[in-house]
Amino acid sequence: MSETKKNVKLRSAEWFGTQDKNGFMYRSWMKNQGIPDHEFQGKPIIGICNTWSELTPCNAHFRKLAEHVKKGIIEAGGWPVEFPVFSNGESNLRPTAMLTRNLASMDVEESIRGNPMDAVVLLVGCDKTTPALLMGAASCDIPAIVVTGGPMLNGKLNGKSIGSGTAVWQLHEQVKAGEISMHDFLAAEAGHSRSAGTCNTMGTASTMACMAEALGTSLPHNAAIPAVDARRYVLAHMSGMRIVEMVWEDLRLSKILTREAFENAIRVNAAIGGSTNAVIHLKAIAGRIGVDLELEDWTRIGRGTPTLVDLLPSGRFLMEEFYYAGGLPGVLRRLGENGLLPNKDALTANGKTIWENNKDAPIYDEEVIRPLENPLIKDGGICILRGNLAPRGAVLKPSAASPHLMQHRGRAVVFEDFDHYKSRIMDPDLDVDENCVLVMKNCGPKGYPGMAEVGNMGLPPKLLAKGIKDMVRISDARMSGTAYGTVVLHVAPEAMAGGPLGIVKDGDMIALDCAGGRLDLEISEEEMAARLAARAEQKNDLPKSGYAQLYVDHVLQADQGCDFDFLVGQRGSAVPKHSH
Ligand code: FES
Ligand code: MG
């Protein structure tokens, strides 16, 4: 045993390290799994936090992934203990997987703190599983490493590649516009998702995988190796080996998840054309570890950064090509060589700095990871908007928007909620033209509840039939990272929390100014005050019981990351009292 090893007091020894009644009980029941005595004698016990579920298809291959992590842990002299946590599957969970992100994070946090483990491997994939597990582990602040499940292979339709999610939005618009038949639409389903893994576009899952790597919480290349590529399983094995060393080095999340790491991640999000959801999730993770992060950091650090990665929905390719082109290490190198990686010294999970890890990373395909002189988007990043319609902010993704609409003034066509939108948008008599601004209320954290990804409202069929592809849309909802359009999202405060979005009326004029960072409703202050006062009188129908009530009572607004007010911050990993 090395000097360092001798100096580290294992947390798990508080369970397994005594010869008394307690030690007997903790060990004895574990031994019913066939664990020999010597495994309890001073080896790091490594939790494998698994979001496997057949209802989360993106994570359905995770038992195999866990087996490879275990091999690595055992090889490095640790002992693995795999445990399940709530699995947030984006595709099946209603009303939205976001409603249970915080629930999953609580599950993770309490599972870690209450159990005998010295460190944890976080098996993540589908969108919300990545932030949920990082949030929970951050609140415990023990050594942790992220292993992502990896993206699906390219989708295929009629011999051509199609991207997860993005293809659905496109095909659906084409059906509505009469460009393809319902038969062709339904025929696309199987080819769209033809292998294990997460969405293969630069949607939220891929974005959060890149964020985890940019934050330094995973080994290099974790974000992009396809789920079915054998190298994904090598990475899982190596991560298992590494987490054991992290115990001996006491390399806790708080040493990795620093302010500097978040600045790197914000810059990377711009370079990859990442999802708007990252704004919410990074804020929530930062809040747990105790790092200050403001919406304006996205303007200061991210805006103006060229988008180099040419992936759908902003660009052309998919995650498979991204990995073959060099993956995130290639992007990090390119940023660093051009003075665009803010903090090269940020520490990562393998004990090296982010720059040491990536400074020599090769780039194999400059169509996919483009040179700085020929970016996909010159001014990438996330546009943060404020104004009398969004006093606490709103976001828009310029790389997914139409340049001609980013400075726009138009007449509001208002939907009171998502049901109202669905019932009204098909109406051929709806008074709307391409210069109008579609406004949807009551889809925020409290209003939906759960802030569903309904913000990319599909356009009225009569305008689609005219060949209109984009309009300005504004809501307090989120949007899938696979979606696109000139869509203003995350308006805060949301309508249901008394935000001014709730008082917009049909015919009001709205001004959007992305360059100036403004979103304004063109009514007088007096009119605004009068309408807000009248609205405050109205009663709401928020949930009155169950988890949904806990959620609406405690969820913070989008600018605060939609965490629960009582979950923000670290609560450490002190060993709780004995159970008997
Ligand atoms: Fe799971 Fe997209 S639905 S990653
Ligand atoms: Mg998604």
TrEMBL record:
Similarity comment text for this entry: Belongs to the IlvD/Edd family.
Record-linked Gene3D superfamilies: IlvD/EDD C-terminal domain-like (3.50.30.80)
Domain (Dihydroxy-acid/6-phosphogluconate dehydratase N-terminal): residue spans on this chain: 43-357
Record-linked InterPro entries: Dihydro-acid_dehy_C (IPR042096), DiOHA_6PGluconate_deHydtase_CS (IPR020558), ILV_EDD_C (IPR056740), ILV_EDD_N (IPR000581), IlvD/EDD_N (IPR037237), Sugar_Degrad_Dehydratases (IPR052352)
Pfam families: ILV_EDD_C, ILVD_EDD_N
UniProt name for this protein: Dihydroxy-acid dehydratase
Gene Ontology molecular functions: dihydroxy-acid dehydratase activity; iron-sulfur cluster binding; metal ion binding
EC annotation from Swiss-Prot or TrEMBL: 4.2.1.9
Keywords: Iron, Iron-sulfur, Lyase, Metal-binding
Keyword Isomerase recorded: no
NCBIfam families documented for this protein: PRK06131.1, PRK13017.1
Positions of the Dihydroxy-acid/6-phosphogluconate dehydratase C-terminal domain: 367-562
